[in-house]
Design a protein that fits this description.
The complex is a heterodimer of chains A (about 300) and B (about 300).
Chain A: H1 11-26, H2 28-54, H3 73-79, H4 85-115, H5 121-133, H6 136-146, H7 153-160, H8 175-201, H9 205-212, H10 217-245, H11 249-255, H12 268-278, H13 282-311
Chain B: H1 2-8, H2 12-16, H3 19-58, H4 62-65, H5 79-87, H6 90-121, H7 125-136, H8 139-152, H9 159-183, H10 187-195, H11 200-211, H12 213-229, H13 232-237, H14 245-252, H15 260-280, H16 282-289
Classes of the chains: A mainly alpha (about 300), B mainly alpha (about 300).
Chain lengths: ~300, ~300
């Protein structure tokens, strides 16, 4: 630089500037990456370590209050708790698996419908985007009105075809399926978008070749398109699954504290939130959270392994 | 509909096929076309109808909401909106939501874009994993320690802590999207700029960044939407002065009887701005949500 610019007068500052510039360029890798990593690191590592510590104490009431080290007692309490913890695990898994199942099957069907261009495509795409960006809490409130047993539109619709009114969200057995329905409504579009991106990136040749060989539409889908789409399907399951396991907003917005009076929709996340902020049982909630975290990591690991196997 | 199709159906490809196929094929494709139209209409109705219902209810009086006969025919009233916006001070919450989403997105872009660049160019997969961990961790496990620390620092109820917590959502998203964007940007441009005398950082600033505007728009819009919609962090960390819209709506139902008209007006007020943004930036949102999904 200085060779190109001999008219420079303040040689001293120029050299420090140059030195800094040279230093910055040499270390740009970490110079660029570290601020974000430090930010995330401080906000994650420290809280996670603390959660781990709290899970080994009997902390409750206030984090500031004195607490005793109790070892793995909280984990023992949680793991033998068949009243709240295990049902919550069951609900979390059934919510995630059933919602994901519907979202992937419906999402694939809709993506196939949208795959080839057609007139009015633009409007369908807008319709797909709207549920996806809608605020989950507002969506929860919207469904509360629609599924209200007395004045809701859902029961009006059922009345038209002669089906008696259903309790929906207020029923002890129907609340969780109803929230699964809401999740499917809001997040199927996400799966559609991911799968559609995958479909459009496929080459036409395998499909054409199968068509030449006389394969019908079903055979072409199940033996040609689907195997080629498997990596994308697994990415969709991975992205959606993480969020489905952690679903909180619509559950808390529609059923409130503790997932309703009978804990109908109390998933692990709702349970842990309640223990922490409604009942201030920090030790116990931390143990629940650590176990929850292990479930999430475990399922992610399984899916990533599966994806590697499929991609090969 | 079917009649129209019969006339407009292009006959050319069918003519080249053998006689048997010529008779069967067009009928089958026509049946599929009709099925496709019906199915697409069903999908659109399924996705739009609930939102439409919410919009309708927000213009009804509570008496009309309880009247099944007035599901679609009623005299619209703007009273719910007047109530929500004026009496319940929703303008303040709208501002809060906007401010938190805007600042957390801007700061996350400043931190996230260079980080994503370094992680993409130097293939720092393990470092990327650290940032992406933030997406996986359940928020509740971070909230207890955050709440403790920030309340000791007298920051709970202020904007700073809300913005920090929302950055935690925005940053991993931005890094993830920008990494896949930089991965797709050819190295040659930067290299030739360096041959022309720019330093590596200079090449990043003058060549790569201007080329990445679309990617940054994608990442920024999505992070704005995620922050606007975020509920849990604000539920714990916001105070009466910094309450964001999702928390404000949630507080709406804590009274004994629900004011349905007001609630639907409030829900509409939250969702409309974000939907308008989404309509105008549709392409960006789609490319952001599907970023990296089709890579092997």
């Amino acid at each position: 630089m200085s060779v190109l610019n001999p008219g420079r007068t303040t040689a001293a500052t120029a050299t420090t500037q140059e030195k800094f510039s040279a230093w910055a360029n040499r270390h740009r890798k970490w110079l660029f990456a570290s601020p974000a990593m430090i930010f995330v690191g401080i906000l994650i590592v420290f809280p996670l370590a603390w959660t781990l510590y709290l899970s080994l104490t009997d902390s409750q009431g206030s984090v500031r209050a004195a607490s005793d080290f109790v070892g793995f007692e909280n984990y023992l309490t949680v793991l033998t708790d068949t009243e709240r913890f295990w049902p919550a695990v069951g609900r979390t898994l059934s919510f995630t698996l059933v919602a994901l199942g519907f979202e992937v099957v419906l999402g694939m069907a809709i993506a196939l419908l949208l795959w080839r261009p057609f007139r009015g495509e633009k409007w369908v795409r807008v319709a797909i985007l709207l549920p996806l960006v809608a605020t989950p809490v507002a969506v929860g409130m919207m469904w509360r009105l629609i599924f209200d047993p007395n004045i809701g539109f859902a029961n009006q619709l059922l009345g038209l075809v002669g089906i008696p009114p259903q309790p929906w969200l207020s029923g002890q057995d129907s609340a969780l399926p109803t929230t699964i329905f809401m999740d499917v409504w809001q997040w199927t579009p996400m799966v559609v978008l991911i799968l559609l991106a995958g479909l459009t990136s496929l080459s036409d040749e395998p499909d054409e070749a199968a068509r030449m060989d006389g394969a019908n539409a079903f055979q072409r889908f199940f033996f040609v398109t689907l195997p080629l789409m498997m990596p994308t399907v697994i990415v969709a399951i991975l992205l959606r699954g993480i969020d489905a396991l952690k679903t909180f907003d619509i559950l808390y917005a529609t059923k409130g504290k503790g997932g309703g009076s009978f804990h109908e929709v109390e998933t692990l996340n709702v349970y842990a939130y309640g223990l922490s902020f409604d009942y201030n049982q920090y030790g116990l909630s931390s143990a629940v959270l650590i176990l929850f975290f292990m479930i999430i990591i475990g399922s992610m690991w399984l899916l990533t392994m599966r994806k590697k196997a499929v991609s090969k | 509909m079917t009649l129209l199709h019969e006339n407009t159906e292009p006959q050319a490809p069918a003519r080249q096929r053998p006689a048997a196929a010529r008779r069967r094929k067009p009928l089958r494709t026509r049946a599929y076309k009709v099925f496709r139209v019906v199915a697409l209409i069903a999908v659109v109705l399924f996705l739009i109808a609930p939102l439409f219902w919410m919009l309708l209810a927000s213009f009804k009086t509570n008496v009309d909401i309880y009247d099944a006969g007035k599901s679609f025919l009623f005299t619209p009233t703007g009273e719910n909106y007047a109530n929500v916006l004026q009496r319940n001070n929703y303008f303040v919450f709208i501002f809060n939501s906007f401010w938190v989403a805007f600042v957390s997105t801007a700061l996350s872009l400043v931190l996230g874009v260079p980080a994503a660049y370094a992680m993409s160019r130097f293939t720092m997969h393990r470092s990327a994993l650290v940032v992406l961990m933030a997406r996986v961790i359940p928020g509740v496990s971070l909230l207890v320690p955050w709440y403790y620390v920030f309340s000791n620092l007298k920051m709970v109820g202020g904007f700073e802590v809300l913005i920090l917590s929302h950055m935690f959502v925005a940053l991993p998203l931005i890094v993830y999207i920008m990494m896949s964007y930089f991965d797709g940007l050819p190295l040659e441009l930067e290299e030739s700029a360096q041959v022309d005398g720019l330093t590596p950082i200079g090449a990043f600033r003058r060549i790569t960044l201007p080329l990445s505007v679309a990617g940054m728009a994608t990442a920024g819009i999505l992070s704005f939407i995620f922050s606007w919609n975020n509920f849990m962090f604000a539920l714990v960390l916001s105070g009466s002065k910094t309450k964001t819209l999702p928390v404000a709506i949630f507080d709406f139902v804590s009274y004994a009887s629900i004011d349905w008209g007001g609630l639907m007006a409030a829900a509409t007020v939250v969702t409309i701005p974000i939907m308008i943004i989404a309509l105008f930036t549709q392409k960006y949102i789609v490319s952001g949500l599907t970023a990296g999904a089709t890579k092997g």
